[in-house]
Amino acid sequence: MKLLFALQKGAECLEVLASAHAIAQVADWQLRILRVACPESPGLAPVPAELAAEAEVVDVTDEPLRAVLAASEHPDVAALSFCFAGPLCDRDDLAGQLLRTAPSALLIGRPGMRPVTSVTKILVPLEGSPSSSEAMRQAEDVFCGEGRELIALHVVTSETPDEAGSLPAPRMIDQEYYEWLSWHEEFTMRFSQCPKGGRHRTVVRVGDPKQVIVAMAHEVEADLVIASWNQSLAEGRSQRVRALLEGSPCPLLLVPAPTALAL
Amino acid sequence: MSDQTDRSGVPEATTGLPEVAAEDATASVAEGARGPAAGEAGKPRGHAYAVIVLACEPWVAGERRADLAGLRSRIQRLAALGVDVAIIGRAGVDVVDGRLQARPTVEGHVTLLLSDGAEVYTVGPRGPRLVQRRRENPEESRKLSEAAEAVRRWLSGHGIAATVSEGPGRRVIDLLPQTAEADEALAKVTELLATHGLNLATVIAEAEQAARAAGLARAHVTSDAKTIVIGLTEPSDSLRWVVRRLVAERGREASDVLVLGDAFANLVDDTGVAEPPTTLIPELRRATFVGVNEVLPALDQQIDLREHVARQGFPSPTPDASWLFEVNGFDTFREREVEAWMTIANGATGTRGSIEEGSAVSTPATFVAGVFGDGVAEPRIRQPVPAPDWLCLRLLVHGAALNVANGEILEHKRTLDMRQGIVFRTWRQKDRNGRIIRVRTARFASLADRALMAVRAEATLENAGGRLVWEGCLGVSHAGGPVADAAIESFDSSGFVARTRGRRGGGHVLAVTTTPAPGSPVARHLEMNRDVIGGELQPGEPATIDRLAAVAGSPRRLPPDTKATRALQRAAEVGYDELLRRHREAWEQRWHDADVTIEGDSEAQLAVRFSTFHMIASAFPENADVSIGARGLSGMSYFGHVFWDTEIFVVPFFIYTYPEAARAMLTYRYRRLDQARAKALRFGHKGALFPWESADTGEEATPPYGIGPDGQVVPILSGILEHHISADVAWATWEYWQATGDDEFMLSMGAEMVLETARFWVSRASHDEEGHHHIRLVVGPDEYHESVDDNAYTNVMARWNIRRGLDTMAWLSAQHPGRATELRRKLHLTDAELNDWRLVADDMVDGFDPKTKLYEQFAGFFNLDDIDPERLRPRPMPADLILGREVVQRSKVVKQADVVMLVYLLADEIPRDVVRANFNYYAPITVHGSSLSPGIHAAVAARLGDIEAAGENLGMTTARLGEAESALAYFKLAADVDLSDNMGNAARGLHMATMGGLWQATVMGFGGVQRKDDAIVIEPHLPPTWEALRFPLRFRGARLLIEARHDSLRVAVEDAPAAVVLGRRRRILRPGVHTYAKGPGGTWKETS
């Protein structure tokens, strides 16, 4: 499988490329770099020599959005990665359009995020619905392994997912000790297992998810946050993705949820 | 053959088998097997007998030898179809088995009763095995030989050279030793004897005389003409064995027996009746005796009938969909919830509804009530010791295991048939080779015999023939548990036994066997720890097996294997179909006394029936050392511990529908009274303080701390401070007694419990300077606020408890002075102490303000911070989590019914306006952070008439309480605890208290039933959409069936008169039907 990186010109994007490369190595993805020339950053970015030797490099000069989208639809593309600099809203540049339209998983880095050289801690927010657990499945399939820790974060709110098969934090806690024990076992079994080895734990926090998730990413010094999303930054749960895009200390892997709203 | 003239009490022999309409025949064979429709072409006619006795000894009749192979195959086929075949003969096993050589695939259905009743052999795949022999002692042996020799000498003296041979318990005098066969023996013997001036009757008489002379007072002398047998047994002894073992012990009737033979007539020679038939015994008066010269056609008819039944033999669900809880598909996320919903239990065991072949998401477990051990991890908690997964069945299709992950699921449905107590599964899978296989299973935990569990599994190749093999195994329980050691081994070549011992606790033995189902064309053999049954099958030809399991458990030690293996053997002898019939019958009986019918609201109907089903399935009235844990027998959650959930929420259901079960659960508490006394003493008090959590020993089983959601250690105070449990036990005791009138219980157990708990409260209370009594530092039902003083629920229930203690003493003194004296002596209870009780009760602080009519939940509650009700929405809400513990502790927010619980339980003492005031006050600030809460709120709201708020949306999604506090909204909330789509609560076990609360909401709330002294008050408040509500109640010896409609009420009374209050008017209703029309102002006018 491949990680497709849409590389635009700019030093900040090279930093993000380096982190994406480190993540690709952990995931055993081959790196394919599309050097994209677009109006907001004309010209093609230079590829660092060490990456040029390992990665496949392709230049895209015409219709960059169409070309990148077409390339990302290839079945051997695990994720599309790019650098997302600047504000989130009303973006018509390549990054903004890719965020809104790319069908694949998106590995997004922003300038200022902690550079990733190895992946040892992965944070996966789970609201406790089957669709949002897609992120955890991706995490397990690709990133579970010795020397890595997967942290499933469940943020308790007064709302509960409507999706059948959901398991939010218990609303009725007859006896705290037993309920949490049962809930942890069932939550793990339902959404969050790491059969290939490595450490794995579920953390429960209470609060506003868009704040708590970002805070937890800082707290545990996550190298990567993986989250399900519905490919929209409109109102609602997507506020959490916005908050992550704005505040996450590390790259973000957004996995399309199969059906209902995830984040 | 001569016809036998009728003698009183002796059956008449007939020729030919009776012709009975097939629909009658098949209905009498196996419940659930669909018989042929009347008049349908091609269906066999006749009655299919469960026991066939061959009393014709074809192996000794020369011209019948050619038929022996045919006879053998038919006997084997009948045994495979589940028929018991008993072969009676005079010869010994070498002769009979040597010639017949029947080898059924499973032992237990073919029996040889030989040597004129002296020997019994059961025949299996390896041949006959001796099970009984009438052995002669040396004295008997000597006498037999003496008598036989005397006859021989007498015959010799008449010129007849007879020989004497020995058999077990008999001597055989052969009159025609040169003749090997008995063909035309009568004619030859008659001629021989006549030649010497004798006849058969004379010879028999001589033999009888010789036996008496030898001192054999009870010898039997029989003859088949060729031989005279002097024996300690006779052929009728064989038939009596059949009656005892194959009829009575297997739950059958004599009419289930067919006797085929040619030995029914008198043995008549020229002089008259020489020998009456010994096969016609009074116990078989209702059996069918058929004298046949040709046995094979008669057996063929029986085989046809049985095969027809076998083809129809897979049980099917109840046609009425309101009894069925169905789950379609296989959802890996929800599978554990489904397993809990589909638990089959009978009080002694509970088996989760995992799919038989297992999957990556399955958590199979079987729980054995009352068997606990010590957990390993800290804190060490007393936990159930689960049994191995007896349902473990693998299906191999051409050698490859079939499971839901391989290939494509075409159809998957599980159905909990609540009426029959069966879980059905239908599964169609296309494997990777394109073969389509259909699997059906039907499983149950017998309510008729609580040691037993069973499953019938059928696999059919739909689009191609091939090899299908079922492998029965004993899987590992997913539940884990405190297992000290476990072992599995085979037993008797018929199955496997698994022994499991708990750590410092009890143990159980599970025995399991798997056999081809009657009529199934597959064969069985044992391999390692698996039963393997299979064969080459055509498309559409089912491979069907029956798997039976028996469990024996003990709270202190590992029981002997035989407790389980014998139960299993008995089960195997009667077979799956008969076990199922008995199980269904048992469920019919329970539903007769418990079923609630709601017309007009199918969701409510399902919810209350589901709850009723699982409560009934959790009760074990025959064992007073177990009770019903918080999650029943459906999961490991809460470790099977018994809380106040049982006495307050579940026992009321049983009091009014199955009092024996209620009594058993109260006896469980009584047997642990010493431990309750010890706990009280440890805390520096007198009397009895029951444990907050109880397992097997009666000692406190609450862990001292737990781990919170974010991994923090949280101290658990309930085991130390939640004392209302003692009053809860007393309340259930008193309620049981008052509702049943079971004075014997009260005398032997109840009184002592009420007295000791009363004594505890007096000891627990402390008085202030003004002499008021307080109960300080407790946890009430609302566990958000711990270490509070004067919790209203605790104090008022304590006061109630003390007063009931005084009432108990007064009743004993007046009605049973001897017992009163006995208890006073035993408990060192003096009048002075009783006087103290009065003082404490009369001056107990209860937090009630007559001006506001409110009970203050605990001292200082009204001074806590108010909280914006909007912050408590939507409910249910774990407010301590969402708002934070500190906020909750200093705020007026209530976890669950506390004061509301109080005004519900003591509704007969608390005026309605007080109930209303407190409900109005506390309901809006109750967040229902406990599953115990909504049912009680529903009941109180219903009684108050707050049925349904206008404009409420009570659709299919999980109920969330907004503004409305209506009974229906609470009811829906309670129903959703286990049945919602998006909460997953049920995965680790079903909520028994919620189920009890739902039943109470329905019957006590909407049905408006309330006990008032020795009468039942009925004041229904039906929701608008409910057209009718029907439910049975048992009350003080009477059975009532109540049907409430909006404008009418029907009360049918059986067994005894019942005191009923309708419209505030007390009436004594005699047995019969009483109907009433609703009048103005809540009045009821009798209309019949």
Rg from Cα of chain A: 18 Å
Give the mean pLDDT of chain B.
89
Largest sheet of chain A: 10 strands, mixed
Distance between the termini of chain A: 25 Å
When the domains of chain A are counted, the total is: 2
Q: What oligomeric state best describes the polypeptide chains here? A: heterodimer
Shape of chain B: elongated
Radius of gyration of chain B: 35 Å
Which class best fits the helix and strand makeup of chain A?
A: alpha/beta
Q: Describe the biggest sheet of chain B?
A: 9 strands, antiparallel
For this structure, what is the CATH class of the largest domain in chain A? Alpha Beta
Number of helices of chain B: 27
Largest interface in this structure: A-B, 38 and 51 residues
Main sheet: strand order of chain A: 3-2-1-4-5-10-9-6-7-8
Characterization of this structure:
The complex is a heterodimer of chains A (263) and B (1088). Chain A has 263 residues and is α/β, with parallel strands linked by helices. Chain A has 2 domains: 108 residues, Rossmann fold, CATH 3.40.50.620; 136 residues, 3-Layer(aba) Sandwich (Rossmann fold), CATH 3.40.50.620. Chain A has 8 helices and 10 strands. In chain A, β6, α5 and β7 form a beta-alpha-beta unit. In chain A, 51% of the residues are buried. The model of chain A has no long low-confidence stretch (mean pLDDT 87). Chain B is an alpha+beta fold and 1088 residues long. In chain B, 33% of the residues lie in helices and 24% in strands. Chain B contains 27 helices and 49 strands. Chain B is elongated. Chain B starts with 12 loop residues before the first strand and ends with a strand. The chains are: A alpha/beta (263), B alpha+beta (1088). At the A-B interface, α6 and β8 of A face β35 and α21 of B.
